[in-house]
Amino acid sequence: MQTVVEAEGLTKVYAPRHRGAKPVVAVDGIRFAVRAGQVFGFLGPNGAGKTTTIRMCTGITRPTAGRIAVSGFDIVADPIRAKERIGVVSDAAGLYTEMDAWGNLLFFASLHNIPSGKAAARAEHLLRLFGLNDWRHSPVGTFSTGMKKHLAIAVALMHEPAILFLDEPTTGLDVQSARQLRTIVHDLPDHGTTVFLTTHYIEEADRLCHRIAIISGGRVVAEGTPAELKDGAQGEHAIDLCLDRDANGVAGALAQEPCIREVLVTGERLRLRVEDPAVVFPLLLDTLGSHGLKVLSINTARPSLEDAFVRLTGLRSEVLQNEKEHR
User: Fold this and answer.
1) Confidence band for 275, pLDDT divided at 50, 70 and 90
2) Which helix (H) or strand (E) is 47 found in, with range?
3) Do residues 215 and 42 lie in contact, with contact meaning Cβ atoms separated by under 8 Å?
4) Nearest C-alpha neighbor of 111 from the set 79, 156, 154
5) Can you tell me whether residue 23 is helix, strand or coil?
6) Helix or strand run (H / E) with residue 11
7) Residue 59 three-state SS
8) What is the pLDDT of residue 323?
């Protein structure tokens, strides 16, 4: 399978902000390869180095060290030919809101010197693909946030890039818009576009990506298919409980037990990450009983991608829950 993007020893170090401070290593010698026809996920918590990596891969930020090749062209040594093969969407800010959708598509096509006939045909195709055909002559300023994001992706695809870089595309979208956008991203490889997707939404990465690299502290700590990453967390198990009332009162007591690695509470629902469920069950039931809580249901689950993520990054479940609540 053809390699579309290849990074070797990719590093970005920022100078100290003030005298006496140390340089900031945002990305530390990472390597990865993105194969054609895939959605490649770049998963990590906020501040892990995801956006810095995407900026280096697209030629916006120059690496301190290392090499990035796009379809075989070095992004630093041969930026024009490399960038011709790249589409980038970080937000919808680049759209011209006083123009309609059709005008935006044709304008950006002209920047890539696409002949007018070919540009019109490509715009027709993309408007239908992204569900925007009925709004082709509407000013973009009247579009919803989700529609603007759809149009921004369509604009980035006008010149038929080898790879589309999407930097946290569903952040800030409502549930319906995010779902529609995930469907589009999922289908893009079927239309000939490879996708590099950065996200800190674990379920999104699990659902969309053929392969995932997990970055933490500027380093890639694991790479593989979602199934391979889950298999790597087989030393852990999840216990899911539904209680008769809010579980926050018992969370602190459970978190103190050495045999329980993580406690996550969502209302009356409780999730524990443990090494050996057989050891935990008696202690768990005693603790719940002493707090006057009744168990309505209890299940054990195989390790999820979230379990693998927590194990690899050390990010606590409370942080992941906060990220979910702010979607």
Assistant:
1) confident
2) none
3) yes
4) 156
5) coil
6) strand 3-14
7) coil
8) 46
Residue with tokens 């002209």: 110
All structural domains of the chain, each given as residue ranges with its CATH number in brackets, are 3-229 (3.40.50.300), 237-302 (3.30.70.2470)
What pLDDT shows up at residue 230? Answer: 83
pLDDT score at 46: 83
Instruction: Read off the pLDDT of each residue in 19-27 and give the average, rounded to a whole number.
Output: 91
CA distance 282 to 91: 50
Burial track 286-306 (b if 16+ CB lie within 10 A, e otherwise): ebbeeeebeeeebeeeebbbb
The partner residues of 48 in beta bridges, in order of sequence, read none
Mean pLDDT of 79-88: 95
Instruction: Give the integer Cα–Cα distance in Å for 1 and 66.
Output: 23
- In this predicted model, what pLDDT tens digit does every residue of 216-242 receive, in sequence order? 999 999 999 998 888 776 667 889 999
CB 268 within 8 A of CB 193: no
Is residue 33 predicted with pLDDT exceeding 90? Answer: yes
Return phi, psi of residue 48, to 5°.
-80, -20
Q: How far is CA 290 from CA 281, 287, 293, 294, 321, in A?
A: 14, 5, 8, 10, 26
Pairwise CA distance, residues 168 & 165, whole Å: 10
Average pLDDT over residues 35-63: 93
- Residue 194 near residue 40, CB atoms below 8 Å: yes
**Closest C-alpha among 205, 224, 194, 211 to residue 3:** 194
The answer to whether residues 209 and 182 touch, using CB atoms and an 8 Å cutoff, is no
- Dihedral sign for Cα 168, 173, 175, 176, please: negative
| Long-range contacts, stretch 314-319, CB < 8 angstroms, 24+ apart | 314/216, 315/45, 315/216, 316/262, 317/262, 317/263, 317/264, 317/271, 317/273, 318/264, 319/45
Question: Taken in order 266, 306, 43, 196, is the CA torsion positive or negative?
Answer: negative
91 Cβ contact list (under 8 Å, min separation 6): 149, 152
Mean pLDDT, rounded, of the chain: 89
Q: Are 215 and 30 in contact (CB under 8 A)?
A: yes
